[in-house]
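We were asked to recover a plausible sequence for a given structure. The inputs and outputs are reproduced exactly as logged, with field labels preserved.

PROBLEM: sequence recovery
POSITIONS: 380
GIVEN STRUCTURE:
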C-alpha cells in the first residue's frame, strides 16, 4: 500500500478467542496500513474486554448498525460457522471486502449464495482463512510446480490427526450439523485439504468412510478417503480428532522428488523435507536448492498481507471464488460418499443434490445412522 493511501478501516465480527488471539495481533502487525475501527459481538462484556485490551473505539451488538455507522473497508468474520453466511452477505452488500474464518460456509449452496453478493471485477470480494497456503515453504513448492522441475505429481498423503476431548464438544455449536456443518472433515482437516488442492489443483472423484467412534457428536469424529485429482495423482487422506500424538502431515511424491510437510497448527521452512528420487544427480545440491531465501511462517499475518495487497490492486484475492471453494466441495463429496456408501465424482455435486444443500444430505438422522453403523459377525 502506498504511503499516501489512507489506512484500511477494519471491523471484526466476533470478539472471542480467535479474534483476540489471532486476528487482532495480525492486524496490529500491519501497522499504519490498517485501522481497527469497530468490534461487533452479542456478548457485550466480552466485546468490552476485547475492545479495551486492543483500544478499539467502535463497539456494537448489531452488525447492520456497525456497517451503517462505520462504513468499514474490510470486515473480518470470527463467529461460529452458523453465522458466517449472513455476516458475509451483509458486509458485501454494504460495500466491504470480507475475510471469513473457516469453514467458509455450512454448504456449497451457502457458499454460492454468498458469491452472488460479490461486486464486479474489482470487488468487493469474500475470501476465507486458509493461512497455510501463504508460508514460504508452500510458495516455494508452488514455484517449482509452475516451473515443472519436479515432474508429474503421482501420490499424495493428506493427514490431520488431532485430539479433542469430550469437554471440547460441550460448546453448544460444536459437533452439530446445523451449527458447525460437520466434524473434523469440515472444521479441522479442511486446512490441509485446502493447501493440497491449492498446490495440485481440482479433484475428480472421492471414496470416503467416516465414523462416530468416541465422541458424543452428531457428526463424525474420524474420516478417511481416497481422492483422485485432475492432475493424475491419487491421495490418501485421514481426518481425526482421536489422535493423542497430534500432527498435520502432507506428502507429495513427484516423478523427481518427495516433498513432505509435518507440523501441527503452522509451519516454517524447517518443517519441510525434500528427498530427491534416486535417478536425480547431485542429490545434496537438489535438496539444498529448494529452501527459500526467506523464512515466512504460515500465518494469518501472511494471508492478511496478501489480502491487503489484493484490495489495493482491486483484484480477487487468493482463497476466494472457485479458489476458495475447492476444499468445501471436496468435503461435500466426502460426506456424500461416506453416508451413501458410493464413490462420488466432482461433477455429481450439482444444485439438485442434497449434499449441495447440506453436508448431511438433507436427512441428519440418516446421516447419523450411517456414521455410527456397526457390523456384527458370527464365528463358525
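RECOVERED SEQUENCE:
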Amino acid at each position: 500500500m502506498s504511503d499516501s493511501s489512507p489506512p484500511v478501516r477494519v471491523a471484526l465480527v466476533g470478539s472471542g478467542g480467535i479474534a483476540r488471539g489471532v486476528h487482532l495481533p495480525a492486524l496490529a502487525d500491519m501497522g499504519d496500513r490498517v485501522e481497527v475501527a469497530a468490534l461487533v459481538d452479542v456478548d457485550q462484556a466480552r466485546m468490552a474486554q476485547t475492545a479495551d485490551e486492543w483500544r478499539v473505539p467502535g463497539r456494537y451488538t448489531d452488525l447492520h448498525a456497525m456497517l451503517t455507522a462505520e462504513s468499514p473497508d474490510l470486515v473480518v468474520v470470527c463467529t461460529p460457522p452458523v453465522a458466517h453466511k449472513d455476516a458475509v452477505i451483509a458486509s458485501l452488500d454494504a460495500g466491504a471486502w470480507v475475510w471469513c474464518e473457516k469453514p467458509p460456509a455450512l454448504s456449497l449452496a451457502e457458499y454460492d449464495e454468498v458469491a452472488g453478493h460479490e461486486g464486479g471485477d474489482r470487488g468487493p470480494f469474500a475470501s476465507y482463512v486458509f493461512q497455510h497456503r501463504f508460508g514460504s515453504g508452500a510458495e516455494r513448492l508452488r514455484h517449482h510446480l509452475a516451473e515443472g522441475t519436479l515432474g508429474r505429481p503421482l501420490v499424495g498423503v493428506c493427514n490431520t490427526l488431532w485430539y479433542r476431548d469430550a469437554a471440547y464438544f460441550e460448546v453448544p455449536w460444536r459437533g452439530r450439523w446445523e451449527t458447525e456443518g460437520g466434524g473434523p472433515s469440515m472444521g479441522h482437516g479442511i486446512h490441509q485439504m485446502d493447501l493440497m488442492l491449492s498446490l495440485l489443483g481440482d479433484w475428480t472423484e472421492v471414496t470416503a468412510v467416516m465414523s462416530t467412534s468416541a465422541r458424543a457428536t452428531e457428526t463424525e469424529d474420524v474420516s478417511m478417503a481416497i481422492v483422485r485429482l485432475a492432475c493424475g495423482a491419487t491421495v490418501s487422506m485421514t481426518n481425526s480428532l482421536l489422535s493423542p500424538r497430534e500432527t498435520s502431515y502432507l506428502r507429495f511424491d513427484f516423478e523427481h522428488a518427495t516433498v513432505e510437510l509435518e507440523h501441527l497448527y503452522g509451519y516454517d521452512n524447517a518443517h519441510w523435507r525434500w528427498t530427491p528420487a534416486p535417478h536425480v544427480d547431485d542429490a545434496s545440491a537438489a535438496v539444498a536448492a529448494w529452501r527459500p531465501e526467506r523464512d515466512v511462517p504460515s500465518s494469518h499475518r501472511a494471508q492478511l498481507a496478501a489480502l491487503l495487497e489484493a484490495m489495493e490492486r482491486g483484484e480477487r484475492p487468493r482463497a476466494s471464488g472457485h479458489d476458495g471453494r475447492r476444499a468445501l466441495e471436496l468435503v461435500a463429496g466426502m460426506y456424500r460418499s461416506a453416508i451413501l456408501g458410493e464413490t462420488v465424482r466432482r461433477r455429481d455435486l450439482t444444485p439438485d443434490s442434497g449434499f449441495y444443500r447440506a453436508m448431511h444430505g438433507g436427512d441428519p438422522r440418516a446421516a447419523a445412522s450411517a456414521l455410527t453403523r456397526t457390523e456384527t459377525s458370527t464365528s463358525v
